[in-house]
Prior knowledge:
Structural class: alpha+beta
Shape: globular
Distance between the termini: 32 Å
Largest sheet: 2 strands, antiparallel
Oligomer: single chain
Order of helices and strands: HEEHEEHHEE
Amino acid sequence: MLPERLSTDLTSLNDHQDRLAIVVELVVSPDGQVKASDVYGAVVNNKAKLAYNAVGAWLAGEGPPVTGRGRPCPAWTSSSASRIASRRRSDHLRAEHGALGFETIEVENVFDGDTLHEVRSQKPKPREVV
């Protein structure tokens, strides 16, 4: 766990507060190839206080759209990111770039409202080593 001051203040994306950030910008082609990239500093100002469990459910397609200031977040954000990630994870691209595969432990975050109550480990999902 992070110290409380870090998790609830210094690194937290609180509503309507500026935070310094490092942006990694990628231009990805429809077939998943990275065509251009850049890294630069930025200031982030969160427009809504979002809870991890609500956003996680929305991104997984298991919950209603999350809202910021009473407006739903754009649906393309989730679907585009998911589509790009799926193409970037393809075995062909991974092998082409010399990536290694690892067996990871999946976790399930259990919330009580907006408070993280428990972290449960689930059966590992094996991946082929490339």
